[in-house]
Structure formats: structure tokens, C-alpha cells
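Step 1: inspect the first sequence and its C-alpha cells.
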Amino acid sequence: MLISPFHYIFKSLRTPATNLFAETAYLNLLLLNQFTNGTFSDLAYNEASAATVQTLILVLNGSLGKLLPPLLDLLYSNCFSQEEGTENTLPYVFQDNCAQRTLEVALSVGSSTFYDKAYERLFKGRLVDLCETEAKFAVISLIGGCKDKEKFSEIYEELEPNFKRFLTEGEGGIMLAIAKASQKLVTKQGNFLSKLLEFSSCTDPEGNNPCLIQSVLRIQASKFSKGSNKITDAGSQMVQTLLRFNKPIKMINSMLSLPANELRDLFCDPCGSYVMDTFVSSPSIGEKSRDRLRNKLKGEFAGLASSEMVLEPSIHCGQYQTSKQKLLLVKNYWLRRQLLLETNGGQLFLQNMD
């Protein structure tokens, strides 16, 4: 019954604010239960009740974290682990949008115990099939919620044969999730970069060719994305993540092999501007690489400062540069102050320089 487990959870709340939330959420769930035939297992499969459950999961994940495992255990036992309809169909939770979204939220904040149970029961051996349906978003949540290197290695190896298909068919969201997990868990980074180098048809094993960064910047987050010839948000995030890898030299080489004007255009792009922020702040990128970037951009600084996408003077004159370098750059900007005053971005930049 619904009343028993939620009564146990909510009566443990102590502070007035959380008590008010608990009572409200509890009453809402009781009311919603009337529309789900009185069974706890239906809560994740009803649009209104699923939204309430998802919100409750996120709230309990804060200062009330001890109350989250009992709720996730109930959801796993009663909602997520229902049997498939036939041998050829995916688990039932992936056949309902509401239940799947609830599972995604649970994976993003759940404990290692819940994660392992969900992975073994629902995902293992099915990852490729799931990526071909709307359940790919659950796979992305699974990858993002992984906290164990060995478990991530299992997921990586199951998906690796399909990396090229994910990229060519516009499923870059999956590849971005893998890149971020590789960076977070510090594993599979070299292999992942090598795969991207291979798929970009770059003949130089060290990445001394712009083809790597050019192909990565245009990765599509989904097959429904448009504008394949422009820099995408997913592509920009991918480059930023690769620049945070422990040894990002291949991406650095590819980026610095771009012509100066293309590099300037990249940094002035709404999505690409974040790549510059990452390049100057990543702990994995040394001063020699930053010097190479500054040398590459000689003559382009005024154009960068004129862009509303590159307003922070710290990018060029900040904590990552020596006093001598700052002086040279300030002189460069000052000689071109009239050009900068002609644009909103340039005016804001000069104001920050004062």
C-alpha cells in the first residue's frame, strides 16, 4: 500500500519547513493514488504523479539524503523492475515516457547500490538497443551517474563498437556523456581521443591537423539537430571536455593548427567562445601551449575584444599571463582603441581595462 512506506519516510522529517513540504507531498501522493488504482507501482507511469515523485527525489537528495534510499528502493522494486512483455521487447520502464524520466532522475542522484541494481537489471547487454530508441536519454543518465571506473569500463566497451555510428547518425549526446564520464573518472581518455582522431580521418597521429577539432565542433547532439556546417553546443562542450583530459595534447595540436582567422572566428562564436575560456583555465594545459595560442592570435586580439562573445579581459590579460605579456597586450589594445570604440563589445572591454 502507498500509505505505509510514505508515512515512514515523511514522519522522519523534523524541521517546520520540511514538515510542511512532507505533509503537502504526502497528501498530493495520496490524492494522485486515487487515479492510479491504489497501487504504488503505477505512480511512475502517471504523468502527474511521476512529476511529483521526480520532484520528491530531487528534494530528498539535498539535506534529507538519508530518506532517499528507501524511496528509490520502493521505486526499483515496484516500478522499475517490472518484467518485459516478451523476450524481444525492452524492459517495461523504457516503454513509458513518464517512468523513464523518473528512472533518469533516480540514476542522476541515486546511491551506488541503486545504480548497480538498475544497471544489472535494466541496461546491461541492452545499451546499443536502448540507444536506438528514446531510451538513449536514460543511457546518457546512466553514463553521467556512473561513479565507478570498472562499471564505466563495462559500459564503454559495450558501446565502443558503435561510436562511429553515433557520430555519423547525429547521436553526439551519447558521445558527449562518455567524454564527460571519462574526464570525471580519469579513465579511457587516451582510447576515446584516439577513436575521435580515427573517425575524423586525421592522418597525423598527434593531431597536427585541423580536421579533428573541425569534426568535433560540428557534432550533433541528436539526429533532429540542424545546421551541420556550424559549431554546435554539443561540439563545443565536447572540445571543452577533451581539453580537460589529463593529456589533451592531440586536441591542443589540432586547435592550434587552425588558421588564425578561423581561430578568431571560433572564439567569437556564441558556442565556441567557451572553448577559449576552457583553454586558458584548464589545469591540464601548460604555459607553453598558452604561449602558442597567444602567438597564433597576434594581430587578432582587437577583433576578439570587439566581439560581445569575448568580453572578459582576464582571457588575454588575466592571471594566466606574466606582467610582460599583459603589458604587450594592453599596448596592442590601446593602439586599436578607436576600432574597439566602434563596437559595444569593444567599449565594454575598454571599460574593464581601465
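Step 2: inspect the second sequence and its C-alpha cells, then contrast the two.
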Amino acid sequence: MNASADEREPATDGRFLPLVLRMVVPEKKSLRAARLRREASNCVALAVSTSQTAFAADLIDEALKLAKRSQEMGADER
């Protein structure tokens, strides 16, 4: 497709207008949900690496609570 010279010219008196793109800023709710999901992942990683059974169980319980809350807030994206 070849554009004519008129189509390639800027719209106003020889100067180009700046192109401003809308920044996508995640909502606070989705940021918090993502942070909760990350914390749940950290709890599981710690639980797997520890040799103390009771401590690991507590971490897994906490991870489940955090993951559930994260899903309620809508952080299914990874």
C-alpha cells in the first residue's frame, strides 16, 4: 500500500503532534492480590525447605489463607 504524500504529512503546520499512550496502571486491589499470591508462594517455598513439621504445617495453612484471599481479590494472573 502506497500512501499519498498528503496522508504522510503531519496534521498541523509542519510539526508533528506527540503521541501519548495511555498508561495501564493496575488497580490497588489487583496489586494487593498479586502481592498476596506472591506471599503464599513464599510460604510454600519455606514450608518445603524446613525440617520442622509443625512450622511447615503452619506455613502451608497460611499459604492457603493467602491464596484464597488472593483469588477472592482477583489475582488469577501469574
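Step 3: confirm your contrast with the notes below.
The mean pLDDT is 78. Helices lie at 5-8, 28-49, 53-73.
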